[in-house]
Amino acid sequence: MNYYINQLKYKEMSDITRGGQFLVKETKCEDIFTPEDFNEEQLMMRDSVKEFVDKEIWPYKNRFEAKDYAFTEETMKKAGDLGFLSVAVPEAYGGMEMGFVNTCLVCDYISGATGSFSTAFGAHTGIGTMPITLYGTEEQKKKYVPKLASGEWFGAYCLTEPGAGSDANSGKTKAVLSEDGKYYSITGGKMWISNAGFCSLFIVFARIGDDKNITGFIVENDPANGITMNAEEHKLGIRASSTRQVFFANTKVPVENMLSERGNGFKIAMNSLNVGRIKLAAACLDAQRRVTSGAVKYANERIQFNTAISQFGAIRYKLAEMATSCYAGESATYRAAKSIEDRINARVAEGNSHQEAELKGVEEFAIECSILKVAVSEDVQNCADEGIQILGGMGFSEDTPMESAWRDARIARIYEGTNEINRMLSVGMLIKKAMKGHVDLLGPASKVQEELMGIPSFDTPDYSELFAEEKEMIGKLKKAFLMVAGGAVQKYGPDLDGHQQLLMAAADILIEIYMAESTILRTEKMAKKMGESKVQEQIAMAKLYLYKAVDVVTQKGKESVISFAEGDEQRMMLMGLRRFTKYTNMPNIIGLREMITTKLVAENEYCF
Fold it and tell me: Which of 389, 316, 375 is nearest to 540 (CA)?
């Protein structure tokens, strides 16, 4: 709690933009947090983590790819010795309690070398430890959390079953109370359990009787207590991440090991996923940096036709796009992380416990967490794919790190709820927030409707200031979303959930708005601090990302409107879409890419 008490000077609850409000509320660059805002403590932590990864993980990638599960466990213990497993854990239970931004920072830089370690780390610190710190009783936290924070014990999370994946609440594992009321007997099977092969305890979800919702339990891993496992799963990627099926046969669990209340398991699972989603985005960032740097180095060294391939336009295109997606991911992830941290701090100031504050703080920004999970997991896959392409045949070889990065990246689109689920969740949660009055969508949507009926302005705008047109364009993209979402809600009402393709198209618009705005605001903040001349490449990346975002909004907006509107209404909305996606001064996209790549090639690495 000490960290949060020290941060209370920052913002009151009323000053903090609520989750989803970015869509209807103008955000100033001074109000967001960026990687350039890391304080001395955060920079020291970042450098310590990078040193650990470069010394203990990166040189041994071949051991992870050879499915050396024991080495994964050994490296996790080293991370525990250095305190990296305890960053998010309260001091009262042996942790460093460094705040939500620091939690994402460590997750970012510790995860980039190999997905095997990243998965072990994420499963342990997140879904293996966090449910106890956030939902456990005082006795449970004192008994288990210090061991998990130090790496003496490792945790695993047993939710998924053969018939319960995305529909997490449909699990068949049963928990039956004993006649003397002292313990539950748990029986059932779980699959895809990360860290199963070396964990000391499981967070297990089971159904008591005919309860509507599942219940969470803390179960110590004791084979003599009816716990068995299948052999290690052989997977496309994350090869040295221990992944097994786990079976419980009348496994006795003391009643005091129920996590939270009976029937609260589904809520625990969903809130754990919210945290997991933003941390997964963070975990993809350094992988992108390393892939981009590796591709730049190779492109500078590879000579074809008497020229380094880094001088060829086709390669320069790829390098610029790779760096831009990474820069955008950093911008949006740390913006959201600080929004969550500010919300937690404000709740602590109002008297909430650490548990309540963190749960509500993350839950408030569940929309942004889903947005980030989708955007960054897809960007890291694209980045790795282009990395392979730049290396050509060498990229396809196991002798270089590109092919393992590509394989490891693939799971990120499945973890923490599939990207399809998260797309639909992001829009669904936004509509629910609007219905509760937490985000005013109706007022802005009505104004957009009036604007569509009105005559557009033909005044020549003043775009002399940096990003003047780009920020206006972000505002117009928000109007495009409100038009599409408002029209869809008006057409289908409560039946909108049944129109998944429409929801996913609307989600893509929402995602691009948040990512593009975050990138522009970060760069504007840098330019004000350092001067435009010092951040020309970052300005180029911000403009390049927005240009591509506009293309996505144009395509997805048109697809959406045509799906639910007809006749005059359709023509009016398509006309509005063209208005909302039209540049006055179209940027020179090839020139922007050239500027970005020139910097990358000169620095011989991702340097932003």
Answer: 316
